[in-house]
Design a protein that fits this description.
heterodimer; A: six-stranded mixed β-sheet; five-stranded antiparallel β-sheet; globular; B: seven-stranded mixed β-sheet; 46% strand
Chain lengths: 109, 112
Amino acid sequence: GQNIDQPTEMTATEGAIVQINCTYQTSGFNGLFWYQQHAGEAPTFLSYNVLDGLEEKGRFSSFLSRSKGYSYLLLKELQMKDSASYLCAVRDSNYQLIWGAGTKLIIKP
Amino acid sequence: TAGITQAPTSQILAAGRSMTLRCTQDMRHNAMYWYRQDLGLGLRLIHYSNTAGTTGKGEVPDGYSVSRANTDDFPLTLASAVPSQTSVYFCASSMGGEDTQYFGPGTRLTVL
């Protein structure tokens, strides 16, 4: 079967750095996505990785290791507005997105 | 630009009744999707359409139907609602099947 695993919840302090991990087992791999979802709102696109390595976009970076079936999202200089759920999704061999349940990130002052 | 709009925002529906959730995008995207999101679970694909005139079944299609008469609209119909269809429904679109998906604001549906 196909499976995406992420921690259910994480807590971090404003101004700090947090790493949200995602491991996956899917039938084929055609890229990995990270989305942010604030409570009661739609998911919004953050990053996309298809090759191994680190993609940096401002305060957010995403890393991929295809051989390990592993990715992480790194958030630096945390702000209160970063409190949200972060969704990991893998595009499988049929080009369908398989979604993790999401990691709820709580930022404390 | 509006992007993707969904209607209604929320709805309470009696079991056994039918309902159509509306989704419209103005980005001229070819592909559109319907997902449901339930607490503790990842988004699950209900139906998709890679281009106008074609549709396909996702992971959880039972009890739902879709149509894609034109590029902009992708309605989702529940023929006879059941309480297990209580969920938040998101419509999404992408330029092509290989491109990033962008989501509408969602419809919160409660079936009693």
